[in-house]
Amino acid sequence: PLLDGERGFWTVDALDGTRSYVDGFDGYCVQVAYIENGVVQLGVIAEPANSTCFAAIKGRGAFALTESAIARNLKLDPNSAWPAKPRFVDSTLPKGPAGAVFQRLGAELLECGSVGLKICRVAEARAELYAKEFNLKIWDIAPGEAILSEAGGRLVDWAGEPFPYTGKVAHFSTVAAIATSHFERALPIVPAR
Question: Model pTM?
Answer without folding.
Answer: 0.91
